[in-house]
Batch of 4 targets.
Target 1
Amino acid sequence: MPMNEGAPIIIKKRKKHDHGHHGGAWKVAYADFVTAMMAFFLVMWIMGLSDGERASVQGYFNDPMGFMKSTPKGRVNLGYAGGRSRSAEKGAGTALAVEADRDRRQLDQVKEDLQSFVQTQGGKGGALAAMLQNVEIRLTDEGLEVEFIEGKGVAYFELGSANITPAARRIIGEVAPALTKAGRVFFVDGHTDARNYAGGGYDNFDLSADRAQAVKRAIIVSGVPSKQVLGVRAFASARLRNPAQPFADENRRVTLVMPFRRAELNQSAEALPTNPVSQDTERMRSDIRVPAAPELRHARPKADH
């Protein structure tokens, strides 16, 4: 028989002492704070939306199911994921207006400098003064234009060729410092009258391109950095200065065009191409070989270009 048989069984129970309740008031306060912050940011977001976007938000909360069914997918822009809010559009528009105004004032200053040079040199008299009278400087929708216009007794090129006359080369050399000082990029555009160039496949587009190229080279030789030249463009008789008289002397000209900086196109003078020769013109020259202009001058003795 076991020794502990019949011994009393003693069960000891330990009494637990519960700690006092901490309470959950802080949770309620924190939840209120988070809710208030969410409401605040929602209000700020809605204030930045346009009227159309606000109407879309209102339509969704008024009838979520009906709104989603009746609205095509991808149609609604609530101002996120790349959408522009009204305040952002207003700010961008203001910045563009300021930039455009500053750009125009800068071109106005360039215009005044060039006009001052033309007036000063023109007052000295002589053959150079007569040619300077055919240099026109004006602001257009595209930008500032400096046009070297031919006329009666004023020729910037030899007849039917792209060879610049000595007087024209001197004028270009005098204008070059003003272009360098401006620091603005520009195109060199060639124009002819509507008189057809005869023979050999060499036409007015070729002639206007070659003349623009010749002026471009003269400008660079005169000290203008090549990075300021955006390219050369050949228009032939597509942009007549005097459409009423397509054969008029004034239609034969070379134009320097300093374009406005368009912030909406994300372009600036530094971002624009710096290749001084138009890619299209160079590609045309490499793909199609045409006879040089001087070889064809005798084929059209009566034509004036």
Target 2
Amino acid sequence: MMLKFTTFVFAVLMFTNAVSQVDIAERSAVYGGPAVDQAKQICEKTFNKQKYPGLAVAVSHKGQTILSQGWGYSNIESEKPIDPETTMFRIGSISKTLTTAGLQLLVQEGKIDLDENVRTYVRYFPEKEYPLIVRQVAGHIAGVRHYKSPYEMMSNVYYPTVKGGMHIFMDDPLLFKPGEKYSYSSYGWNLISAVIEGGSEEAFLVFMQRRVFDAFDMQDTQEEIRANLPEEIVSFYVKDLNRKNVLAPDVDNSYKWAGGGFISTAKDLLKFSHQIHHSDLIDQDLLKEFQTPLTLNNGKKTNYGLGWATNVDKKGRRWVGHSGGSVGGTSMYLYYPDYDLAVVTLVNLSSAKMDQLAWKVAEQFLTHLDGDE
């Protein structure tokens, strides 16, 4: 009886996946079959050229998935294939963009003031020579340091709380007077997660699960806890001296959940993109503010808002999103607001050479959409 039930469940899952792929194929034809074919060819060419272990690529237009495909393996030894619907990757600093959704919800509710000192919400954070403002920390212009060396990224220590990870950097001096420079800092986002805890009066991970992942139906997105990795997580690889893919050293990303410690699927990141730009939960005017580059004390603008990178492509089309780099992971989330087009690329390899893959994929669809206007 148990064998029959298991066979039935497997058959249902296979049928559901087949239906999903048929739906995507039908949408692909509507949104430009040649664009899909060209995008796939670019992905396959890049995959073969760079010799990634595995690659997942997904594209959506107006919330509808029009490309979802994997190349290579989640695990090379077992030859487990990549499935963009279910395979989970380290998404690196895309975690900042997920976290900023939580920050925005609290700003909307009046529980956090972006122009308030971080110590209003994090009393244990030491006083510095200058006051640290939430907005400046979230936009990488507060002077909070990044990693002292690549070795800090190799931490294998488990920190069960946000406060535990804060001790790595919070007693260090600021690099400069806030607002003077742009200096990228993942540790700044540790501090933002502590601000979220203070504003919400809730543990950061509990808050993110309840207010963002559950609310956005992101069923395959979570914090990475090494002792409890999900079955669908990829194996993590690095290139050795002979440019061969080998297993990466074990690391524990609990020291930087908000800045680079979440794991997710290509499918879930498309869900996030649609929800953050269309959900009634999100104040779109405030989102535009979060996606607007900050201005330094000298009047120059950065290319970064609050958890959102923002720029224009070679043809002057505005995009927002975030890249991600982690041990055993390279990722990109790209969104074109004027086209409602989202692209996600995920690779289970450290420092993978991406050859502007997300932009090349986007270009195939943008050219098609421009032709329809």
Target 3
Amino acid sequence: MPSKTLTTQSPWLQRFMAWVHERFALPNALLFFILYSTTAVISRHIMQLRPLLHAYDLLGAIVTWSFFLTLRILDEHKDYAGDCKYHPERVLQQGLITLANLRWVALLCILMQLGFVLLYDVHGHILVAWSIMALWTVLMTREFFIADWLTRHLTWYAISHMLVMPLIVFWLAQMAVPGIPLHKALVTLMALAFVSGFSFEITRKTKGPEEEQQGVDSYSSLLGTPLATQVIMGLASLMMLLQSILLRELLPQSRPSILVLFIVSWAMVLRQLNRYRKNPSSTERKANEKAVALNMLMGYGVIMVICLTAHGS
């Protein structure tokens, strides 16, 4: 239901789903599910375990989604004052959903994550990985106690926040295979998650001229549209390189022709970014986000499917 038709008297679930649609769209869950599934498949491939996918991986994917939802809720708290000033039209800022409501949802998500630990963690490996990731998340929420400095250095802000992505992948790997060591392929996957997240973050904050607001930082205003676009192109190229390296580490005998899939996906991203560079706008910015997200899905998905088919899982 559109938020314009809602009031504070509307059913709570309708108001909450309006917030979800606006700030944590359900279709994005596909990326989180693919991230968990790919990590699980790669982790079991590394440890030579079969099958590469289990029925309980559906629960693992839902738990993964719950953590990203927790991150979104923490961001809503951190950015609340600024969003009230610059985005008063949002569901939360209108009072249709409150921060207290979201805290209860976050608590439920955390209980779900800890419940997975109780069900499947025998020696504490999952709990340790979750705790490290949770500690970094808390530091992110507190802006590492240097909020003013990070506000003035947007690139370092993004780097510090995207460093949670390797920690998330390590946690997911422990969920799939408790006790898995830091194999080089797992480290490469962690690096790919960092670069992918960094790429999407910069893409999301590289805006069309009509979207720019005084007081709201963006990479297009900080770097200028041409340079910001080149940075995203560079990150997309690094993503393709890491995807290729990861595939060779996992399956050294894989056919080189498979790399064509990565190249085609990369070329489509560069084509779209070039369109945005020539004609920056809100429409092209949204197309950038879709292109980068699809490139991420393609990279993770192709590697997962190739591992599965190579072992008949």
Target 4
Amino acid sequence: MRFLSIFTLFLILTSASYAVELSSNTTFYWQLTGNLKTDVPADLYDVDLFDTPKEIIEQLKARGKIVICYFSAGTYEDWRPDAANFTEDILGNPLEEWEGERWININSAKAREIMLSRLDLAVEKGCHGVEPDNVDAYLHNTGFNITYQDQIEYNKFLAQAAKERGLLIGLKNDLEQIHELVPYFNFALNEECHQYNECDKLTPFIEAGKPVFNAEYLPEFTTALGFAKLCERAKEEGIKTVVFNKELDGTFFKSCDYSYHPKIHLHYPKCSDNSQCLPGEFCLKNNCGDPIGTCTKKPEVCTQLHLPVCGCNGITYPNLCVAHSAGVNVLQESTCSNPKHIWLNIYQEDSQICLKWSSTFNTENYILYAAPFPELTSIYSIPLNQNSLCLTLWNSASFYIAVYSEGILSNIEQITLK
């Protein structure tokens, strides 16, 4: 019988067929709570098995995404729809900091039966694979006598059952057992290996050509310098790394491997300022001085992460989301060092050259400076009490143009009139 079980396992490991394939270049996005963002340019989505509707999974797959479904394989969660299937005799100690969650006895037949049902649900919903969480119970005070070997056998059980169903499966954390489990799993998902200097323990997956996904939460990794250093290390190690907020609700994430910019809905009208937008919207602009923006919904809920930004009004906000919820566009991803700014924008409208400027301070007195290029032999100054000007000129000339007020000079632009 032992020979038969080993032979069967060999067949499963060597002949499993998957609908999709992963590589060491596969990028990932992880969101387990909140309204799922479906426009992130990652190759792989890791989403909650129970909370993600089948229709959403199908939409992601139609866009070419690999969909991995998360569930806890080592704990009971009292809010899950199958919570009633867990009997009291297989429930252990509660998890610290996770209300309503308790360890389970992974050696019980009942626990394994529930996990098989969850794998079946993943197949039914169309998931490409699964991410079973809490598979390192032997390291914790579970209330049960779970040994190192018990955990190895249980994790192999999960891997075998997933492969029998054509599901990819990832090893979540469990760094100390990687060298024994890497042949059974398709990828690794780790939390904070950079923060705790443990990334080297994931090397067996990288050497096997299997992707390693890593989530970091440390606030220092969200700063420009901290993030740059983090990504440099991640790329050297071959680890796909994304910085998330701990809620994993999609309100904050920053990937070392792709850029994310929220899509602007095309049905929103163009605007020059907030007054032209509907209630609950603001005029979103790429740059403070842009004459035209797009009416966009203000965020309703923002994370409390401290990632200060300088608003176009010269006020520092805790993060980008808070600035946008206040209807303010952003000048820079840092505090406001000098709250006074003037932005000059030049554009052509029909046969006219138009100038439009705005500032972070209240003033109606501007001076328009113009200097001929390239001689700069003289500077012309024109007092103005407006923030825009359109000119129709016929003579060929090239000028430097800038706007000045209260000791502040705008950006200097070069225009050519033909």
